[in-house]
């Protein structure tokens, strides 16, 4: 069934009198912007990924339900401006259309950007991230709460999908050797990290400019589709991929004023940076438009952050970022 038709079938199960339904984007899910007769805006997500290598767990009903349970708690317990999950007429957060799950959220107004453009945006993002982690450090998820975890298995899965691309001629053998060595080193460090309330819990998982709405100088997080369990520093690592190395320490310091940084945080962020980079490459394999640029991206990573990491050299605050 066409995704637009699925969206219409899902929409019929909500108490919303829609006057417009507009497709916005598709990656992990197809997103439609909904406007009702009162002028209120919503985000309807049809959870059909265009990433063929995305793990199936991300579209499971119980996993989607858990995402919205956390969003509901964040809306109740914090002053953050966030998408508000909406239940359908049956009282459920997840609406089924055939075998496709759909979810509805309030629309967060503001400006989305492809990159950070000012110190104020970075500072506000750091404060917003710290507020999310502060809540997670005190929140007790219900027993039914199920979200993916950042751990060795997912990183190893990414490597297992990348290595055969050498034989297929897509990736350079030397580059992949460096990626693998860096991944092994990162996994070994992550295996040793403690899991306590101040270092590990539910996190957003994808705090990057396209997933932030900026309004009146404040950063508002959207798209919690990658949320899950892991070290809180995971969120800092993914954000740092969009921050120039010379500005990363200031960003981390802003965050640290509102939520405590663990000992050896630089080594941990670097290990997570490497791990998330590999998962990103795995996802790129499942997207035709991203796959074309993957060989160049992998070569840059191997010669920059990944290569330095393998050689025991720090890279978080020095070097050339991937976009240069």
Automatic annotation (TrEMBL):
InterPro entries: Aminoglycoside_PTrfase, Kinase-like_dom_sf. It comes from the Bacteria. Residues 65-256 form the Aminoglycoside phosphotransferase domain. Signal peptide: none annotated. This is Aminoglycoside phosphotransferase domain-containing protein. It comes from Paenibacillus rhizosphaerae. The lineage of its organism: Bacteria, Bacillati, Bacillota, Bacilli, Bacillales.
């Amino acid at each position: 069934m066409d995704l637009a038709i699925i969206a219409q079938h899902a929409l019929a199960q909500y108490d919303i009198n829609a006057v417009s339904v507009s497709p916005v984007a598709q990656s992990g899910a197809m997103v439609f912007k909904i406007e009702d007769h009162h002028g209120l805006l919503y985000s309807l997500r049809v959870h059909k990924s265009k990433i063929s290598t995305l793990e199936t767990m991300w579209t499971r009903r119980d996993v989607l339900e858990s995402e919205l349970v956390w969003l509901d708690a964040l809306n109740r317990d914090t002053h953050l401006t966030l998408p508000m999950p909406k239940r359908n007429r049956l009282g459920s957060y997840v609406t089924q259309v055939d075998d496709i799950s759909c979810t509805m959220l309030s629309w967060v107004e503001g400006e989305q950007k492809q990159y950070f453009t000012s110190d104020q945006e970075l500072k506000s993002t750091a404060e917003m991230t710290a507020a999310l982690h502060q809540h997670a450090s005190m929140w007790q998820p219900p027993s039914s709460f199920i979200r993916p975890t950042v751990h060795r298995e997912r990183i190893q899965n990414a490597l297992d999908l990348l290595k055969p691309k050498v034989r297929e001629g897509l990736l350079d053998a030397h580059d992949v050797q460096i990626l693998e060595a860096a991944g092994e080193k990162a996994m070994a460090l992550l295996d040793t990290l403690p899991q306590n309330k101040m270092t590990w819990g539910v996190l957003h998982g994808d705090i990057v400019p396209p997933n932030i709405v900026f309004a009146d100088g404040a950063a508002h997080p959207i798209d919690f589709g990658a949320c899950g369990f892991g070290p809180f520093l995971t969120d800092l690592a993914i954000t740092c991929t969009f921050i120039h190395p010379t500005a990363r320490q200031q960003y981390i310091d802003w965050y640290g004023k509102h939520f405590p940084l663990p000992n050896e945080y630089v080594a941990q962020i670097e290990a997570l940076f490497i791990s998330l980079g590999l998962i990103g490459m795995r996802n790129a394999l499942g997207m035709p438009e991203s796959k074309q640029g993957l060989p160049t991206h992998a070569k840059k990573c191997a010669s920059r952050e990944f290569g330095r990491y393998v050689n025991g050299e720090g890279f978080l605050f020095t070097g050339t970022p991937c976009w240069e």
